[in-house]
Design brief:
alpha/beta, six-stranded mixed sheet, 10 strands, globular, Cobalt/nickel transport system ATP-binding protein, ABC_transporter-like_ATP-bd
């Protein structure tokens, strides 16, 4: 079966720095659950950003749902089906209230205001976050921001979910809530996480990023 998302031979370097990715390749099939594992600075977050076109590789190709993704228009289309939850929630939350933030994605997909709000409330209920509906976003705790950020992505009903260190700033109660949410999803999942215990509870297939390339766990 063809992958839903594929990165092939990806090379990338930040200006003035050594290459962080030197031919990294990753295939994500429908329903796959993958953990990207590696030391800090190995390029895990960079790879996720390349996957959705927020960074562009110097060589290599991103293919999504059978189509090469090259232009910004290509990636805008891809981001309708591939959702990235950033490592820092403040990079992703910018509306005055939680419900407006969660509704932003559905509105961009063409939903009217009433429909987008209904979609957002459904997601907040599914995640047991309706008590945050009208809260001012920048007044939330770090853990609350992280869960709301996930809600903003899930409201777009992506087919592939990319998560960058999703357990950062989560207390045990919210980490358990996140675990239950992720277990209940049927999307393909690629997660960057240093939390080995959390990864183990999700039964993820580990792929290690070493020296700029990816390798399956032995």
């Amino acid at each position: 079966m063809s992958p839903v998302l594929e990165l092939a031979g990806i090379h990338f370097a930040y200006p003035g720095r050594p290459a962080v990715l030197t031919g990294a390749s990753l295939r994500v099939g429908a329903g796959d659950r993958i953990a990207l594992v590696g030391p800090n600075g190995s390029g895990k977050s960079t790879l996720l950003r390349i996957a959705v076109g927020l960074l562009r590789p110097s060589a290599g190709q991103v293919t999504g749902f059978g189509r090469p993704r090259v232009t910004e228009t290509d990636f805008q289309d891809l981001r309708r089906d591939v959702g990235l939850v950033f490592q820092d929630p403040d990079d992703q939350l910018f509306c005055p209230t939680v419900i407006e933030d969660v509704a932003f994605g559905p509105r961009n997909l063409g939903q009217g205001r009433a429909e987008a709000l209904a979609t957002s409330e459904t997601v907040l209920r599914e995640m047991d976050l309706m008590h945050l509906r009208d809260r001012v976003t920048h007044h939330l705790s770090g853990g609350e921001k992280r869960l709301v950020t996930l809600a903003t992505v899930l409201a777009m009903r992506p087919r592939v979910l990319l998560l960058d260190e999703p357990t950062n700033a989560l207390d045990p109660e919210n980490a358990a809530r996140l675990l239950a949410i992720l277990r209940g999803l049927d999307q393909a999942l690629v997660m960057v996480s240093h939390d080995a215990a959390f990864r183990a509870q999700l039964d993820l297939r580990e792929v290690h990023l070493r020296a700029g390339r990816l390798a399956e766990s032995p």
